[in-house]
Design a protein that fits this description.
By secondary structure, this protein is α/β, with parallel strands linked by helices. It folds into two domains: 56 residues, no CATH class; 60 residues, DNA polymerase, domain 1. The chain is 21% helix and 16% strand. The strands form two sheets. It has a three-stranded mixed β-sheet with strand order 2-1-3, with no helix packed on it. A hairpin with a 5-residue loop joins strand 1 and strand 2. The longest helix has 14 residues.
């Protein structure tokens, strides 16, 4: 006798939400629901990172799985500063909330207008407002 085989149909086009717990250096720790196959970078768009969050060691391209726990470490006091006058795109991307587009905008602005005269001049760059500047200020130097 041949055993009966049960089949399950899977709709690969249907994305389900997954739950991910976020702890550590965030203003709003807890469980977040994100679409399946979301990345850590996409998760960072919905959590409020603290000013002292250290995301340099976190792989932001990692695809999240259901029930993942992401722990955002705190920056150790004065552990790093990025120069807005000489930092590379990659170094600027280590700042909380700064992605490739904004980092590129900073470098392009610097190349077109010369060195920044103060940290506050960063708000002249497209994509940097007062809120973003306050979030990254402690990690910046000229």
């Amino acid at each position: 006798m041949i055993p009966e085989i049960n089949t399950i149909e899977i709709d690969l086009n249907q994305k389900k939400d997954i739950q991910v717990e976020v702890k550590g250096a965030v203003e709003n720790p807890g469980v977040f629901y994100v679409p399946a196959y979301s990345t850590v970078e996409e998760l960072f768009k919905i959590v409020e990172l603290r000013n002292d969050a250290d995301i340099r060691q976190i792989n932001q391209t990692m695809v999240l799985k259901n029930n993942d726990v992401i722990v955002i470490p705190y920056v150790k006091e004065n552990s790093f500063k990025v120069s807005i006058n000489s930092g590379s795109i990659e170094e600027l991307m280590m700042l909380p909330g700064i992605g490739k587009v904004t980092a590129t905008n900073i470098v392009n602005y610097r190349n077109e207008h010369g060195f920044f005269q103060s940290i506050d001049d960063l708000v002249k760059v497209k994509g940097i407002g007062a809120k973003t500047l306050n979030k990254i200020r402690e990690f910046l130097c000229l």
